[in-house]
Design brief:
The complex is a heterodimer.
Chain A (H helix, E strand, L loop, with lengths): L3 H27 L19 H35 L15 H30 L6 E8 L2 E6 L7 E5 L21 E4 L3 E8 L4 E5 L4 E5 L5 E6 L4 E7 L12 E6 L1 H14 L9 H6 L1 H4 L1
Parallel strand pairs in A: 1-5, 4-10
Antiparallel strand pairs in A: 1-2, 2-3, 5-8, 6-7, 6-9, 9-10
Helix pairs in contact in A: 1-2, 2-3
Chain B lengths: L15 H6 L4 H30 L7 H8 L7 H42 L7 H21 L31 H29 L12 H32 L13 H35 L6 H15 L14 H13 L1 H15 L8 H24 L1 H7 L3 H31 L5 H28 L13 H31 L40
Helix pairs in contact in B: 2-4, 2-5, 2-16, 3-4, 4-5, 4-6, 4-7, 4-8, 4-14, 5-6, 6-7, 7-8, 7-9, 8-9, 8-11, 8-12, 8-14, 9-11, 11-12, 12-14, 12-15, 14-15, 15-16
The chains are: A alpha+beta, B mainly alpha.
Chain lengths: 293, 554
């Protein structure tokens, strides 16, 4: 047996070593590019929206340290009892089967940890669900297996277009396989963009990790979510609900540009997608779902 | 025949086909359940092995060829058929592992074998019902396997919409072919089988306990099966109704889940998860029970905080039934609904924590012998804790919104089920193997099985947390190149898992070849429950004179 002091020191050292990855983790997670997944990354995708940053902090700053500590604490306890109470070290088992204080403690402490988690969780939840006054609204419809974007007329749009994955053979240098698309959706930077979601055939889900946004597109329902992108750039997302054979082949690409560039794009897009008058409504199409087949 | 008795009460002892096909003996039916569970588990494992081989590298490599072999796909269409086949694999893997591996082994297998033995009963309350429960499951498995080879999605075979069967993927829009009807009927039969089994367990436990075996003296495994049986009776009828409406939507023109006819797709999801979430506790509670017996046996100490353990399980059962919509945070629920489901879900961490800490407290002060079942049990406590803490993360709608339908979820539920429930199954299997077969297994090989699987599943599933954090969606046959590294590592882990499965098969062969007699109780003074007072294997009919329980057995 070790003497009390040395044992304490050794335990402290073990605890510190065990905590090291937890402390390093946010630093590792921070070194990431926005909009695209980092090769071999171990942390959460870098975020560019207020909700995204808050989600990052909630996971990296609160949840991740707590759950790592709990997992390591249980592992430490297991290793300790295996070392201290194996049949060589402790041939005669005790008969202890109750300890009311201990049982109350290990019930109450988890309750307090959960309450501690709930406060920032509920705040973030409200920020995600309650949509602020939006300057741009776009309607996104999931189809097997592409996305349709509709820009409303009263905001300078009045057109819709399909966003289809670029096949591998058509990729230009620098474009990412399975993420690059033919028509990027463009939104203004630093403005609240509201996205309305539905689907025309089966359920899809619209998710962009760098926005902290993931929302189902469900036939017959109109879901809403929002983001406010803080940085000009291209951001990729994917379909997050199994929707048939090409589920893995319907990426999302959203480009954030300055307000003047956005106006310019709107004007060009209006010409380019003139044939699509925006009347091709996903919710209407599902009503006629049976006739389509 | 089976009812003929002689003067001393010994029953006819059927042999061969008559013994197993028409069996009304709880031990034989338990053995059959374990065999069907092993068959389902091996098929499910092979499916996952092929999926991990496909996912090891970016690009689609294996499945188009496989589709030509399995589904006789036209080479020109092989790429599309391959993508469909991958989705079918993930679906069938889920269905097999839940309904034909975990449930049959834990409830039908261990439950049938050891509930009567542990409470001192001669058999189950309704032996014939027990027989039909089992054979319904066989019919169900046949239907599920058939579904893989009949038409599904347009031009494709099999149902490929994920084990949750969400319409419209499972309706006429996504899967017009009959594959989904086969799946629905398979679910009906499996559900009926489980309901009958649950009725049998509840009746047996309430009415057939030996004198002195009060409810509060019952071993924790029996309590676990009791709570599980109540959950089964509560939720399986909901699943039956849920898929029946899908069946009528598909075939008889109803519109329960068709928005065009005034139906609602979310109705299906609520009903499915009202069944689906308690289902995960249906799987894990019997594993909890087995772990409690094993930890106590090998620590040579009674279970710490017995009553706390019992009521923690009841609490998990009750709270676990009112948290279902945490699977649906991204469907567009109201803020208040999300708040409710977030907090009620997190509350489950409290009774689960009580169980984890009570197991450690049982070991604390004990005299632990690291026999094979104990290794599995300690492994279970660790991996289940890992799965539990990520469960706390995902309980939060706010965090789930970043991880929903991604690999973080895949890692989470495999840590609780593929590692948790499976380690519980292996722990119980090695613990009771000598009792069930009468033979000792080679513990060195059993330990090798443990270490290979422990290393293997951790290498497979731990990196999937990283993939999920980085945003990789689940159920993808191909992924952006950035996710290559951890997918490759994950697939390498499957090598260890495969070796573990081979060792497991060899352990069985070795034990049956060497025929080392196990004796009544191979585990020593810690094994205090009633099954260890009987011979190994127990007589065809046990407890002709009911045992009398005086002290507290736990």
């Amino acid at each position: 047996m070790l003497t009390g002091n040395r044992q304490l020191l050794r335990r402290a050292a073990v605890a510190a070593a065990a905590l090291l990855p937890v402390l390093l983790y946010p630093a590792l997670a921070a070194a990431q590019a926005e909009g695209i997944p980092t090769p071999g990354g171990i942390g959460m995708a870098a975020t560019v929206t207020p909700v995204g940053h808050e989600t990052q902090f909630f996971y990296n700053g609160i949840l991740m340290p707590i759950i790592s500590f709990i997992a390591l604490f249980v592992l430490g306890l297991l290793l300790y009892v295996m070392w201290r109470f194996n049949d060589q070290a402790n041939p005669v088992p005790s008969k202890m089967t109750h300890n009311t204080l201990l049982e109350v403690v290990w019930t109450m402490i988890p309750v307090m940890i959960l309450l501690f988690i709930a406060v920032p969780s509920f705040r973030l939840m409200a920020h995600q669900v309650e949509i602020p006054e939006a300057s741009v609204t776009i309607k996104v419809t999931g189809n097997q297996w592409y996305w349709t974007y509709k820009y409303p007329e009263d905001q300078g749009g009045g057109f819709s277009f399909d966003q289809i994955m670029k096949p591998e053979a058509d990729l230009k240098p620098g474009e990412l396989r399975l993420l690059a698309v033919d028509n990027e959706a463009v939104v203004p930077v630093n403005e609240v963009v509201k996205v309305q979601l539905t689907a025309s055939d089966v359920i899809h889900a619209f998710g962009v990790p760098s926005f902290g946004v993931r929302m189902d597109a469900i036939p017959g329902r109109l879901n809403e979510t929002w983001f406010k992108i803080e940085k000009v750039g291209i951001y990729y997302g994917e379909c997050y609900f199994i929707c048939g054979k090409d589920h893995a082949y319907m990426p999302i690409a959203i480009r954030a540009v300055s307000r003047p560039d956005y106006e310019k794009w709107l004007a060009e897009a209006k010409q380019k997608f003139a044939r699509n008058d925006g009347k091709d409504d996903g919710a209407l199409r599902v009503a006629a779902g049976d006739e389509r087949r | 025949m089976a009812s003929s008795t002689t003067a001393d009460g010994a029953h006819d002892h059927p042999r061969g086909l008559r013994r197993f096909l028409f069996s009304t003996n709880h031990k034989d039916i338990g053995t059959l359940y374990i065999i069907i569970g092993a068959v389902g588990g091996v098929i499910g494992f092979i499916l996952s092995l092929v999926m991990r081989m496909e996912l090891a590298n970016p690009g689609v490599t294996i499945f188009p060829g496989l589709a030509q072999i399995i589904h006789f796909a036209d080479p020109a269409m092989a790429f599309d058929a391959g993508k469909n086949l991958y989705n079918m694999f993930i679906t069938v893997h889920g269905v097999l592992m839940i309904f034909f591996m975990a449930m049959p082994i834990l409830i039908g297998g261990f439950g049938n074998w050891f509930v009567p033995l542990m409470i001192g009963a001669p058999d189950m309350a309704f032996p014939r019902l027990n027989n039909i429960s089992f054979w319904l499951l066989v019919a169900s498995l046949v239907l599920a396997v058939f579904s893989m080879f009949v038409d599904g999605a347009p031009g494709m075979k099999g149902f490929a919409g994920g084990w949750t069967f969400y319409p419209p993927m499972s309706g006429n829009v996504g899967t017009p072919g009959p594959a989904m009807d086969f799946v629905i009927l398979a679910l009906h039969l499996a559900g009926a089988s489980s309901i009958l089994g649950a009725i049998n367990f509840i009746t047996t436990i309430f009415n057939m306990r030996a004198p002195g075996m009060t409810l509060h003296r019952m071993p924790l495994f029996v309590w676990a099966v009791l709570v599980t049986a109540f959950l089964l009776i509560l939720v399986l009828p909901v699943l039956a109704g849920c898929v029946t409406m899908l069946l009528t939507d598909r075939n008889f023109g109803t519109a329960f889940y068709d928005p065009a006819g005034g139906g609602d797709l979310l109705l299906f999801q609520h009903l499915l998860w009202f069944f689906g979430h308690p289902e995960v506790y249906i799987i894990i509670l019997p594993a909890f029970g087995a772990i409690s017996q094993i930890v106590s046996t090998f620590s040579k100490k009674p279970v710490f905080g017995y009553l706390g353990m019992v009521y923690a399980m009841c609490c998990i059962g009750v709270v676990g039934s009112i948290v279902w919509a945490h699977h649906m945070y991204t469907v567009g629920m109201s803020l208040n609904a999300q708040r409710y489901f977030t907090f009620s879900t997190m509350v489950i961490a409290v009774p689960t924590g009580i169980k984890i800490f009570s197991w450690i407290a049982t070991m604390w002060g004990g005299s632990i012998s690291f026999r094979t079942p104990m290794l599995w049990a300690i492994g279970f406590i660790f991996v289940f804790t890992m799965g539990g803490v990520t469960g706390v993360v995902l309980a939060n709608a706010s965090a789930d919104r970043q991880f929903h339908e991604g690999y973080y979820i895949v890692a989470h539920f495999h840590y609780t089920l593929s590692l948790g429930a499976v380690f519980g199954i292996f722990a119980g299997y090695y613990y009771w193997f000598p009792k069930m077969t009468g033979y000792l297994f080679n513990e060195r090989l059993g330990n090798a099985n443990f270490w290979l699987l422990f290393i293997g599943v951790n290498v497979v599933f731990f990196p999937q947390h990283f993939l999920g954090l980085a945003g990789q969606p689940r159920r993808y046959i191909d992924y952006p190149d950035a996710y290559f590294l951890w997918n490759m590592v994950s697939s390498i882990g499957m090598i260890f898992v495969t070796l573990a499965m081979i060792v497991w098969l060899y352990v069985i062969v070795e034990a049956f070849m060497k025929k080392r007699a196990a004796g009544d109780n191979p585990w020593g003074v810690g094994a205090t429950t009633l099954e260890w007072t009987l011979s190994s294997p127990p007589p065809f009919h046990q407890f002709n004179t009911l045992p009398r329980i005086t002290g507290s057995a736990h």
